[in-house]
Amino acid sequence: EVQLVESGGGLVQPGGSLRLSCAASGFTFGSYDMSWVRQAPGKGPEWVSVINSGGGSTDYADSVKGRFTISRDNAKNTLYLRMNSLKPEDTAVYYCATGRGSTPDDYWGQGTQVTVSS
């Protein structure tokens, strides 16, 4: 079965950094565009970043541009998100998803909690 398992979340101070990972299995990872999507407490999902299937093209939400970097290792079936200069408003559950995570055909993981607080 399709599995997307996020890891790397935790509690960090404002200005700190984290690297999230998403381990994929059960589908042809290298054939899919992949995204990170987050959901803050009491709010709806917010698309964060996308990377194309080959890893050569990326895009970011304005709120994270210049601070976050998405990457992937297709040989390891793994997606990454490096988050720098973290802000309290980055606090959310972070999910990896196929595509942009915006259609009923997209797969989502269970998420990993990121909390930015002093």
How would you explain this protein's 3D organization?
- The structure is a single chain.
- This protein is mostly beta strands and 118 residues long.
- Helices cover 0% and strands 47% of the residues.
- It contains no helices and ten strands.
- The radius of gyration is 13 Å and the shape is globular.
- The mean pLDDT is 97.
Task: Write a concise keyword list for the protein shown above.
globular, mainly beta, six-stranded mixed sheet, 118 residues, 10 strands
Q: Strand content of the residues, in percent?
A: over 45%
Assembly level: single chain
SSE order, one letter for each helix or strand: EEEEEEEEEE
Q: How many runs of DSSP E, i.e. beta strands?
A: 10
Largest pleated sheet = 6 strands, mixed
Unreliable sequence segments: none
Structural class: mainly beta
Report the mean per-residue pLDDT as an integer. Answer: 97
The general outline is globular
Helix fraction bin? under 10%
Rounded radius of gyration (Å): 13 Å
- The CA-CA distance between the termini, in Å, is 40 Å
Total DSSP helices? 0
**What spatial order of strands do you see in the largest sheet?**
2-10-9-4-5-6
Topology overview:
Elements lengths: L2 E5 L2 E3 L5 E8 L8 E6 L5 E7 L6 E3 L7 E6 L4 E6 L8 E7 L13 E5 L2
Parallel strand pairs: 2-10
Antiparallel strand pairs: 1-3, 3-8, 4-5, 4-9, 5-6, 7-8, 9-10
Task: Describe, in short, the structure shown.
This protein is mainly beta and 118 residues long. The protein is 0% helix and 47% strand. The chain has a six-stranded mixed sheet, with no helix packed on it. The chain has a four-stranded antiparallel sheet with strand order 1-3-8-7, with no helix packed on it.
